[in-house]
Amino acid sequence: MNAQPKGWCPGAYRPMMSGDGLIVRVRPWMGRLSSAQLDAIAAISDQYGNGQIDVTNRANVQVRGIHTKDHGAVLDALAQANLLDANSVLESRRNVLISPIWQEGDLTCRLADELVRRLEELPDLPAKFGFSIDVGPVRHLSAASADIRLERAADGRLIVRADGLDAGRLVAEDEAIDRVMDLARWFSARRDKQFRRMALVLQSQQPEGTWQELTPTHEQSEPQPELTEHGQIVGLPFGRLATKLISEITLKCLGVRLTHNRMLLLEGISGFGHDDAITQKDDPLLRVDACPGMPHCISASIQTRTVARQIATKVSGTLHVSGCEKGCARKSAANTTIVGRDGLIDLIENGTVQSTPKIKGLSPQQLLNEI
Fold it and tell me: Is the Cα dihedral 251, 59, 307, 301 positive or negative?
């Protein structure tokens, strides 16, 4: 079994083969899908996939189970729904995470628009290199994966910060994307096959000049099920976006915004409820990251989401259930990590999938007894 990380994520132009067929990933502009676009994704999944749709930790949507012969038809359908970049190069560079709390024409939108317009100026970057725009008074993306971050300082001024540094560079709005480009070029000139993320490069060298002037605001909050000024946020168990849920959403709101922690902001509505949506902040499944597992992934050797549901209420803190040692669903440490290896289970406490297990080779029943 090959369970080595691939070093890249699937896209629309470059899907990834898995145990249930191709994974086609869609990167919504501004992290938003209109109701019509949601319906289009559901139709693609029903016609060409296996009905499995996931929201990822990069606030993307991926459709599973696509047959190779249907890939061209899927691209055509995505293009008709305005969900396809002009080419694969632009798609691969548009790794931009955006806080879901924005309104049309505000600073978040202006910065995102300029960054996307200037993607062609970026140097050659690793496939997973990404950007975040988190410029509200409260940071929502501090725990999200990004290499170059646009944020607010404690006094409200705008900064550009390299991930791995505690402070960032003070910038005016009209120069912010210029400095993002400068930082990307600095990284590109120093990275190699081993050091493919900003924080790794910064362990051995740092950019010269005034790149560490102000620390970002300490006010931060992960998106969670609640009512906001822009609409209701609901969670998705394991990030799964059920087609029945899509049908209900598109009847009631004009669009949704996706979050890095696999939630949806339902624009302009409140009081929404559905069996496939999490509406309570204390729901134990909100603490769980679990990949699709068997039989959907060729690297997985356990049914991850079955295991996750069995033990979610038995553990405290965060839980990560991974079908193999790649750990696709979560890169950071969790209070409890479960890793499938050759059909058995390793139990790790306060670590990642790469940490030393507390116990190896458990059967599912033995895991339940141990937990």
Answer: positive
Question: Amino acid identity of 216?
Answer: P
Q: What is the mean pLDDT of residues 328-341?
A: 93
Amino acid at 221: S
In the chain, the amino acid numbered 82 is N
Is pLDDT above 60 for 4? no
Whether residue 2 is predicted with pLDDT greater than 60 in this model: the reply is no
Helical ranges in the chain per DSSP H? 35-48, 71-80, 88-93, 107-117, 173-188, 198-201, 243-252, 304-311, 364-370
CA–CA gap between residue 87 and residue 23 (Å, rounded): 18
Q: Residue 90 phi/psi, 5° resolution?
A: -65, -40
Q: Is the pLDDT of residue 86 over 70?
A: yes
Strand, coil or helix: 278: strand
Average pLDDT over residues 167-183: 98
Q: What is the DSSP letter of 215?
A: P
* CATH level 3 topology of 16-85+223-267: Sulfite Reductase Hemoprotein; domain 2 (3.90.480)
Please give the structure tokens belonging to residue 177.
């994307």
Q: Which residue has the tokens 């998106």?
A: 223
Cβ proximity of 77 and 40 under 8 Å: yes
The pLDDT value given to residue 7: 61
CA of residue 130 relative to chain centroid, distance: 11
Q: How far apart are CA 288 and CA 233, in angstroms?
A: 17
Residue type, 193: K
Mean pLDDT of the chain: 94
**Residues making up the chain, counted from first to last:** 371
The topology under which CATH files domain 101-201 is Sulfite Reductase Hemoprotein; domain 1 (3.30.413)
- Given a cut of 80, whether residue 5 has pLDDT beyond it is no
Over 60: is that where the pLDDT of 277 sits? yes
Range(s) within the chain of domains with CATH label 3.30.413.10: 284-370
Q: Residues 6 or more apart from 337 whose CB is under 8 A from it?
A: 319, 320, 321, 322, 347, 348, 349, 351, 352, 353, 355
CATH of domain 284-370: 3.30.413.10
Q: The whole model's pTM is what?
A: 0.90
Q: Would you state the pLDDT for residue 1?
A: 44
Does the pLDDT at position 251 exceed 90? yes
